[in-house]
Write a structure and sequence with these properties.
alpha/beta, 20 helices, globular, disordered C terminus
């Protein structure tokens, strides 16, 4: 791939978060993880949540909406003051916002009342940096007016330092913030649980043990992402500096003079370049990225023999003289980034994003637990598990190393852990430790059955859903319960029926859609590998759901026109085989099953064979292996 690509190591982001959260916790300080430099990525947010942040914070309302839609379970904090006309969106999607204008607070109050909610606000105080915030002497007057507003709740005060005026956090200015918080509590008898003492620039005081008593909250982004200055030495040594790596391909590699020749003037950006040193032959690389993608001043080659010389809008020039012939045409060059370069790379549509999450090697699962899904445990249900077993499921799975256990009835709610997970994803731990995969069976289809996908709120799980109807309703129902897969790691495959409105919603929420028309045009051999690679990025595993009505009914003995036009028998098996090869399978559900309507067992035998393909049966086998 010639274009630039940024690799995001989610494990390193989680580990950096954990180091900083623990350092803050020992001094009674909670951390909001700031995702704005990651363009509000839900995957990055989940890594921060696993690392222990108490809120996810972002400056862009669009990013807050993205995070909310993807089911981030911790409170979301909007850290750039909203405009009055954004009030409705703010109270719908953000739990907390930072504010300094009464007119905006009044708009938030009205919007919150309209949807019958209470929106939490933090009042920003300007301690000298002259960005956002009221002046300290105005605090008590503002607080009195905020407390009179219905629909908003004052939960804290905060300050921002060092971002515009370069005014650093000090014991004096942060003590002033803590003093104002105490005065508010004393005069108004309110709790005021958040006193937010700034950002990464406050970490030197933290390391020295000089954060004033009463400061109990920091908003950290650059230090988590990059261990960026001014992260102090003690913490810097414990943090990964390469959670983000930018790569680009060499599109030219030649020996050229080290100084330009000809009439000198301004460059494409109105500057006059200066080239020091004597003219000598140098090995110059041109990489396929430029100022439209990144800020070249913020790039550091991981190979110390390389030096960035400059960039035009879409060409980056690198001196590779010290590396001699180590880099050739088509090779890839890697860089770490500073904060400014990271901001540009993550927001550029021309930079491909690749998320990496380490997955511990899992022993081959040996137990498949069969559940009949019911809405309530008191409900009657068809014996779907027994029906599959009677028609040969054990005979299909035992030769490839899987034991089948019939568990009986289980309601959708009972599949979910009620509390957030502190460290490891419990479901993944259950799967890895006990080598079990749940197989959830239902007579209903995906769009009308509460299939339990995503067993822990906010966990890193994706979903591959084979269904004939392209609707987002089921996924949104899960999100309302703070459950379900990451929407940006979800794909609906084999869709034959959808509307323009549903398609627009799916696109808006980041859910991928592969219609039967696309499958006819391009084939699953082309579509599935790319799809699995995309939805599998940055997640611990995938839930696979398969509705029987996604199939062409003629392959199942249904010859009426209403069941024609779906996946073929071989397409379904091929898709299952590719999912198995990914190593991401964590849970399976099947919809549209019937024991009573399958007297001959033909449907059950089809399902059993499909499950065998999903769980590892191959067309090509070792000599002597079971057929």
């Amino acid at each position: 791939m010639a274009g630039p690509r940024i690799i995001i190591d989610l494990d390193r982001i989680e580990e950096n978060t954990s180091v900083l959260v623990e350092a803050c916790r020992t001094q009674g300080i909670g951390v909001a993880g700031v995702t704005k430099s990651a363009c509000g990525s839900p995957r990055v947010a989940r890594a921060m949540v696993r690392g222990g942040v108490v809120q996810i914070a972002d400056s862009r309302l669009d990013n807050i909406v993205r995070l909310r839609r993807d089911g981030i379970a911790v409170p979301l904090m909007l850290i750039r003051a909203p405009a009055p006309d954004e009030a409705e969106q703010v109270v719908r999607h953000a739990d907390i916002s930072l504010n300094s204008e009464l007119q905006t607070l009044q708009a938030l109050s009205r919007a919150a009342l309209q949807i019958d909610t209470v929106h939490d606000v933090v009042l920003m105080i300007d301690l000298g940096d002259l960005r956002e915030g009221i002046l300290p002497h105005e605090t008590m007057d503002y607080v009195e007016q905020i407390l009179a507003l219905p629909g908003v709740r004052l939960i804290g005060i905060g300050a921002n330092l060092a971002c515009v005026g370069g005014i650093q956090p000090t014991v004096d200015n942060l003590s002033n913030l803590a003093y104002l918080a105490d005065e508010i509590r004393r005069h108004h008898a309110i709790e005021l649980p958040i006193v937010s003492g700034g950002n990464t620039f406050s970490l030197p005081l933290l390391e020295q043990g000089q954060i004033p008593a009463g400061i109990n909250h920091l908003r950290l982004g650059a230090s988590i992402m990059l261990a960026e200055s001014p992260t102090p030495p003690g913490l810097y040594e414990k943090l990964h500096k390469d959670a983000y790596t930018l790569t680009a391909d060499v599109i030219e590699a030649k020996i050229k003079p080290s100084r330009p020749y000809g009439l000198s003037g301004e460059d494409a950006f109105g500057r006059r370049p200066v080239f020091d040193g004597e003219d000598r032959p140098s090995r110059r690389l041109i990489l396929a990225m430029g100022r439209e993608d990144i800020a070249p001043e913020g790039l550091r080659p991981t190979d110390e023999r390389l030096r960035v010389l400059g960039a035009s809008s879409d060409h980056l020039i690198v001196d590779a003289s010290a590396a001699e012939t180590a880099y050739r045409l088509g090779d890839s060059v890697a860089f770490t980034l500073d904060y400014g370069a990271l901001l540009m790379a993550m927001t550029s549509p021309y930079v491909a994003k690749e998320y990496r999450l380490h997955r511990a090697e899992a022993t081959q699962p040996t137990v498949i637990k069969l559940f009949n899904l019911v809405e309530k445990l008191t409900d009657a249900c068809e014996p779907l598990a027994s029906h599959l077993l009677l028609n040969g499921l054990r005979e299909e799975l035992e030769p490839i190393g899987h034991e089948c256990i019939e568990h009986g009835k289980k309601s959708a709610d009972s599949f979910f852990w009620k509390a957030p997970v502190d460290s490891d994803d419990l479901y993944s731990l259950f799967y890895r430790s006990f080598r079990q995969i749940p197989l959830i069976l239902s007579g209903g289809s995906w769009h009308d059955t509460p299939v339990p996908v995503g067993h822990v709120a906010g966990q890193d799980a994706g979903a591959v859903v084979f269904t004939s109807r392209g609707s987002i309703a089921r996924l949104l129902a899960l999100k309302k319960q703070k459950r379900g897969p990451s929407l940006e790691n979800t794909v609906l495959i084999g869709v034959r029926h959808t509307s323009l409105e549903d398609k627009a919603l799916l696109d808006n929420y980041g859910v991928r859609l592969i219609t039967i028309d696309e499958i006819d045009r391009h084939g699953l051999a082309s579509l599935m590998p790319k799809t699995i690679a995309t939805v599998g990025q940055g997640v611990a595993g995938l839930h696979v759901h398969f509705d029987i009505d996604v199939m062409d009914g003629r392959d199942l003995g249904r010859d009426d026109p209403t069941h024609q036009g779906g996946l073929t028998y071989r397409e379904a098996h091929f898709a299952m085989e590719l999912i198995h090869e990914s190593g991401l399978l964590q849970a399976i559900s099947l919809g549209g099953l019937s024991a009573e309507g399958d007297a001959t067992g033909r449907l059950a035998r089809f399902v059993n064979g499909l499950l065998a393909s999903l769980l590892g049966r191959k067309v090509v086998k070792k000599i002597g292996a079971p057929v």
